[in-house]
Target: Small ribosomal subunit protein uS3m
Amino acid sequence: ILSRIFNKPVELELIRLYRPYFDSNILVNTIGLISNKIKFRKILKKLFRKATIRNNKKTNNLLPSFLSGIQIRVAGRLLTNRVIPRMTVKNYQKGRLARSKATLVDTSRFTRKNKRGTFSITV
Model:
């Protein structure tokens, strides 16, 4: 159906994810869309509480993939935060992200404009 609509061959690649924090692109878009309605501190508290972060050495043979760490970087002004300078950058991290500890590091960025200016979220 999509191939007929777009007049081009369309190929869907479906990936089953149990949690949004397993894919950085999905996580950053989710955080970016709800950050203007919910305070960022509450989003981070709930995310860091739910995310299960594993140590690489202990679970190497048991699990095919796991999360070794999450780092979130917020630059700019969100609507739910107090008025701050535009150049403010805040980093939040849980777990390890060093190349020796993590096999694959996946990064995504979400940038949007609101009435206080622009903001960017990187996961």
